[in-house]
Amino acid sequence: MARHVVATAAEIPPGGRKLVEINGRPIAIFHVKDEYFALYDKCPHEGGSLCKGKLTSLVESDGPGDYRVSRQGEIVRCPWHGWEFDLRTGKSYCDPVKMRVRNYAVSVEPGTRVVEGPYLAETFPVSVEGEYVVVEL
């Protein structure tokens, strides 16, 4: 799986988001409570941009008048029809078996690791002998 640098950490402050495109795929990056999440940016219902959706909480209930609110800011609501998806898993709580949006792994890494990279060019010894430049293979 290829890795892609999509932003500096400062570009996506806590509570922020950014839409990027990787190999033609729109991907929404979210920064919630010191964690980053990435989802495919199209709601599977009719294609609304999840990056433009409202971040909300998980509301659970065991019956009328009884409800619990948790995971503040970890659920994104599609701006078109209100379908909700878990930022951690991409699953919809409306139909978690059939309906989900793809999620991607995100990490924050020191700039030195990203800039240096694992890429090395092959080098060859070069010397000057008399009036000739000599390369050793």
Structure summary:
It is built from one helix and nine strands; from the N terminus they run βββββββαββ. It has 137 residues and is mainly β. The chain has a four-stranded antiparallel β-sheet with strand order 1-2-3-7, with no helix packed on it. It has a three-stranded antiparallel β-sheet with strand order 4-5-6, with no helix packed on it. A two-stranded antiparallel ribbon has the order 8-9.
Tell me about this structure.
This protein is mainly beta and about 140 residues long. The protein is about 5% helix and about 40% strand. The chain has one helix spanning about 110-115, and strands at about 15-20, 25-30, 35-40, 55-65, 65-75, 85, 105, 125-130, 130-135. A four-stranded antiparallel β-sheet has the order 1-2-3-7, with no helix packed on it. Strands 4-5-6 form a three-stranded antiparallel β-sheet, with no helix packed on it. It has a two-stranded antiparallel sheet with strand order 8-9. Strand 5 (about 65-75) and strand 6 form a beta hairpin. The longest helix is centred in the C-terminal third of the chain and has 6 residues, at about 110-115. The two termini are about 35 Å apart. The model has no long low-confidence stretch (mean pLDDT about 90).
Describe the global form.
elongated
Element order: H for helix, E for strand: EEEEEEEHEE
Mean pLDDT: 90
Could you tell me the number of beta strands? Answer: 9
The secondary structure category is mainly beta
Strand order of the largest sheet: 1-2-3-7
* Biggest beta sheet summary: 4 strands, antiparallel
Kindly estimate the percentage of residues that lie in beta strands according to DSSP.
35-45%
Q: Which consecutive residue ranges, at least 5 long each, have pLDDT under 50? A: none
Query: How many helices in DSSP terms?
Result: 1
Head-to-tail CA distance between termini = 33 Å
